[in-house]
Amino acid sequence: MLSVLINERSGKTPMPANKFNGHTDLGIGIGLRTTHYQQILDEKPAVDWLEIISENFMVDGGRPLEILDAVLEHYPVIQHGVSLYIGSCDPLNKEYLKKLKALTHRTKAPFISDHLCWGSVDGESSHDLLPIPYTFEAVIHTAERIRAVQDYLEIPFCIENVSSYAEFNASEMTEWQFLSEVSERADCGILLDVNNIYVSAFNHDFNSYDYLHNIPLQRVAQIHLAGHSKFEKYILDTHDAPVKDEVWQIYAELIEHIGKTNTLLEWDASIPPFETVHKEALKANLILEAKAKRLSKSA
Amino acid sequence: MSDEPVKSLYQLQSLMAAAVMRPLDDESMQKTWLDGSHTSEYASKFIKPNQRLNSFERLEIYNKQYWYRLLESLQDDFPGLNSLLGHKRFEKLSVAYLARYPSRSYTLNYLGNKLASFIEQEPNLTAPDSELAFDMASFECAEIKALDAQAKPTLKAASLCQNVPAEIVLQTQPYLSLLELRYAVDSFLLKLNKAHHKTTESNAITNRTVRFSKSSSVRKHRTFVAVHRLNNTVYIKRLDKDQYCLLKSLMENKTLAEACNLLISKKRNIQNQEKLALKIKKCFTTWMELGWFCQSDP
Fold first, then answer.
1. Of A266, A258, A177, A263, which is closest to residue A222 (Cα–Cα)?
2. What is the domain range of residue B199?
3. Over the stretch A37-75, which tens digit does the pLDDT of each residue have?
4. Which residue in B10, B11, B12 has the most chain A C-beta atoms within 10 A of its own C-beta, making it the best mutation to test that interface?
5. Which residue, of B81, B98, B131, is where some domain finishes?
6. C-beta of residue B65 within 8 angstroms of C-beta of residue B59
7. Pick from A189, A201, A139: nearest CA to A165
8. Assuming Cys at both sites, which of A39, A218, B113, B200 could form a disulfide with A14, CB separation 3.0 to 4.6 Å?
9. B69: how many CB neighbours lie within 10 A of its CB?
């Protein structure tokens, strides 16, 4: 049954603003990071939107919430999580979900995202985004949990493909089949990280475009871009550099298929000044505008 | 380990976590598994190799990332302890601590909240500086708590008038910690901070990573401090012994009358008692201004 589903893709036309992103057309955003707090609050630079790491603000008080409230006065804020561990076998953490939901009320986030990964076992946390074995058991398990989370949070939930460095002998399908299966079964959105596609494609010897052309693109609610570090035998997803040309090419191909979509640049280590990060993010505009021009010509 | 192929999701996650969370051996994954077999055999049971990396090497990437991330987090949270012990000793302590108390939280914010008691349990890891290390860890933990613990609505003086002191139980803010230290670690951290041109602003405190010589400044001196937050900035306030005892009694849910009487009864001379009563009054004015007392939970 599942293998039949794998081969059936919806023929719906992808929409940039869709039910998976709360029908938002946010533009190009950057991740809100501590090094830029003061400048953002003082100068209020023109940036379309900001993405926060949910867990950094799931606190009981203090400066993080003060900053968040000040930022919310001037910018749309989207929440992105790193610790839900939707693929873990541990029970869903109710306390975590309660805090996450409270934060969505504070931010009024139209949708929320976390990673298609696992990270804890028997209550012990790795604080890492560990790859899920691509098995049918994992598809069913993960999709059920996404549905439960989505029902509880009462806003659309999107899963992000992770960069990975290891594959399991037990896997029964490709990563893109797994992502497709889970998202279809859970009826959730996809936060497509094109840098992660590139990193995993190199690490596991597959073609990035095979990945891109075989997932339900109509579910893409948001796109992530980032830089990575290439070593002799593998690539690490370090988020500490500008986006590589090869990744921009995948992004362009994606935009060609789905049109303008909420896009965000992540820069989490060796963070340069705000202007540098924003300028890098705005390179996406060249691709988005080119696509818009082609669309208007054809119209 | 059996030769049966590993299939269940839980089984796979348990196998991977056991390898990922196992301490490194000189910055590499340990070559020998727990049962004496080769770790490479263990890894190949569930991790697929590729043309460039074998199963061991692929798993090792995650093993290294786990330790780098967690050790860096502790280093960021405990810059004073790191400076005091030196990086090697601090790392050895951290690895032993994490092996005993792996993270069971979704956040790294409180990763080190049992570090002080671990230092007490395992004094050999910090000898001959165990007492000093304990004080430093307790102090830095209090700073972390002050950073983002809950702030409840502050108590208004008017609301106290409705009760007699014998019935008043004052609740302190969750972000407030009282510490009785054997060493003046607060001064040490202040110097450390100044040395790196940082302010006492909360997030700056947790961002120091530079070495500072222990011998240059840690004084053995009984010190009482309150670590608290005001306008979302972390502050340290020195207390004298009377102030500390009074606040401690209140934190232990003694009534206002009990806490004050306990202190005053220690002074035999009436003049001294009157002086102390005046001092207590002054202290309460300051503490109320700082918002240290909060309304009780309904």
1. A263
2. 150-294
3. 999 999 999 999 999 999 999 999 999 999 999 999 999
4. B12
5. B131
6. no
7. A201
8. A218
9. 13
Residue B15 lies in a domain: yes
In B112-251, which ranges are continuous DSSP H helix?
Answer: 115-121, 130-148, 157-160, 185-195, 202-205, 241-251
| Single pTM value for the model | 0.91
Coil, helix or strand at residue B3: coil
Helix (H, G, I), strand (E, B) or coil at B233: strand
In a domain, B86, yes or no: yes
Which residue in B has a C-alpha nearest to residue A62's C-alpha?
A: B148
ipTM above 0.85, yes or no: yes
Instruction: Assess contact for B245 and B276: CB atoms under 8 A.
Output: no
What are the boundaries of each domain within chain A? Answer: 2-298
| Residue A243: burial class (beta carbons within 10 Å; 0-12, 13-18, 19+) | buried
Query: Which residues 36-65 of B have a C-beta within 8 angstroms of A?
Result: 45-48, 50-53, 55, 57-59, 61-62, 65
In tens, the pLDDT along A100-156 reads: 999 999 999 999 999 999 999 999 999 999 999 999 999 999 999 999 999 999 999
Residues B172 and B37 in one domain: no
Q: How many CB atoms lie within 10 A of CB A297?
A: 7
Q: Are B20 and B111 members of one domain? A: yes
Q: Are residues B172 and B270 in the same domain?
A: yes
How far apart CA B127 and CA B109 sit, in angstroms, is 27
Top CATH class, A2-298: alpha beta
Last residue of a domain, one of B75, B97, B131: B131
Tally the domains of chain B. 2
Domain membership flag for residue B143: no
> For residues A260 and A262, what is the distance between their CA atoms, to the nearest angstrom?
7
Contact A43, A288 (CB under 8 A): no
Question: How many pairs of residues across A and B have Cβ atoms under 8 Å apart?
Answer: 134
